[in-house]
Amino acid sequence: MRAVLFANGTFSQHFSPDGEDIVIAADGGAHHCLALGLYPAFVIGDLDSLSENDLEDLRRHGAQIVQFPTRKDYTDLELAISYAQDLGADEILILGALGSRWDQTLANLLLPAGFASAKIRLVDGNQEFYYIRSGETACLSGRPGDTVSLIPLCGEAQGISTRNLEYPLENEPLQLGSTRGVSNVLTADHAQVTLGEGWLVCVIQHQLDRKNEEA
């Protein structure tokens, strides 16, 4: 089951959910839903970014409002991810997670590291971000010429092997703080990245003529 989460950051794409998706808005992420003509199934957070009129409109169209105190230990987006997992989502697509506040953006990019039981992907315009864990082989999709960057988290990532990338790795490491894994290039529509140990952030920047395609 896939959950689609709308965060309250910059939103820069067209999106139409699959009929089986569960749409969840993290507080002000509901504004992005409404701008697309969507009504989320759930709105989660302290609701400081939504007016009473907004909330009434959302309730009237079937949204379940899950309110938390303003003084809380977690961001609205983290609460929304936890809620999606509790609903049984094993795949989570996050939209609108980036923005002008670097602290929020960095925290949002690292959030999936705390949710190992779900496949979490962040999409922003023509860019997508996801995470590769120890022992996993990730299958990348795009077109020849798309940019792929592999960035280690939590120290050295070891035993990395790639297929169909212009600059291959064969059972090699990437060091935290090094840019060696940045700006690789897809040479086919599909590629693979296998990770022995560690964590990798994988960022795919699709060519600009794909930016209006659905996530």
Summary tags:
215 residues; alpha/beta; Rossmann fold; 2 domains; 13-stranded mixed β-sheet; 4 helices; 13 strands; elongated; disordered C terminus
Biggest β-sheet description: 13 strands, mixed
Averaged pLDDT: 92
Based on the coordinates given, report the CATH architecture of the largest domain: 3-Layer(aba) Sandwich
Annotated CATH homologous superfamily of the largest domain: Thiamin pyrophosphokinase, catalytic domain
Radius of gyration: 18 Å
- How many domain modules? 2
CATH class of the largest domain: Alpha Beta
| Beta content | 35-45%
Q: Which of globular, elongated, flat, extended, rod-shaped describes the shape?
A: elongated
What name does CATH use for the topology of the largest domain?
Rossmann fold
- Class based on secondary structure composition and strand pairing: alpha/beta
Total number of beta strands: 13
Low-confidence stretches: 210-214
Secondary-structure element pattern, one letter each: EEHEHEHEHEEEEEEEE
How widely separated are the two ends? 16 Å
Please give the share of residues in helix: 10-25%
> How many helical stretches?
4
Write up what this structure looks like:
The chain is built from 4 helices and 13 strands. It has 215 residues and is an alpha/beta fold. Helix 1 (29-35) links the parallel strand 2 (22-26) and strand 3. Strands 1, 2, 3, 4, 5, 6, 7, 8, 9, 10, 11, 12 and 13 form a 13-stranded mixed β-sheet that branches. It folds into 2 domains: 2-125, Thiamin pyrophosphokinase, catalytic domain (Rossmann fold), CATH 3.40.50.10240; 130-210, 3-Layer(aba) Sandwich (Rossmann fold). The protein has helices at 29-35, 52-60, 76-86, 102-110; strands spanning 2-6, 22-26, 42-45, 64-67, 91-95, 119-124, 127-133, 137-141, 147-163, 172-174, 184-185, 190-194, 197-205. The model is unreliable at 210-214 (pLDDT under 50).
